[in-house]
């Protein structure tokens, strides 16, 4: 019975295949996990801004952006999130949006695109970071 020799060769092919698949998952995680961690810091910054809810609506747009930028700087968040801060004012409340997309190269011509939508509604800070619809543009002042 010669089946032992064939089985050993097939076993090494299985191990090689498992290593290749594990390497692909490791590479994918190595590329995407830091971006998701950055988004957690974005959510944290919006929650921090939401904690000052009564005064948030009284601040100017540049003051709101500045406070969020300080949290981003402390947590080393750079790039798309720091450039995507948008403040929308209505008569009775303020929306702070940080909506952005990150494109990372996975392999040669294969990219991963991750999109994030984070929103703070000053009238409902407990629902922080979940996007809601903003009323029509004619009622708001965008920046």
What would your notes on this structure say?
The chain is 50% helix and 23% strand. A four-stranded antiparallel β-sheet has the order 3-2-1-4. By secondary structure, the protein is of the alpha+beta class. The chain contains four helices and four strands, in the order ααααββββ. It has helices at residues 3-51, 53-56, 61-74, 80-83, and strands at 85-89, 94-107, 110-121, 141-142.
Topology:
Blueprint: H1 3-51, H2 53-56, H3 61-74, H4 80-83, E1 85-89, E2 94-107, E3 110-121, E4 141-142
Antiparallel strand pairs: 1-2, 1-4, 2-3
Q: What's the shape?
A: elongated
Termini separation comes to: 78 Å
Q: What's the average pLDDT?
A: 81
Q: Which runs of at least 5 residues are low in confidence (pLDDT < 50)?
A: 137-143
Sheet with the most strands, sense and barrel status: 4 strands, antiparallel
> Could you spell the SSE succession in H and E letters?
HHHHEEEE
Concise overview:
The chain is an alpha+beta fold and 143 residues long.
List keywords for this structure.
four-stranded antiparallel β-sheet, alpha+beta, disordered C terminus, 143 residues, 4 strands
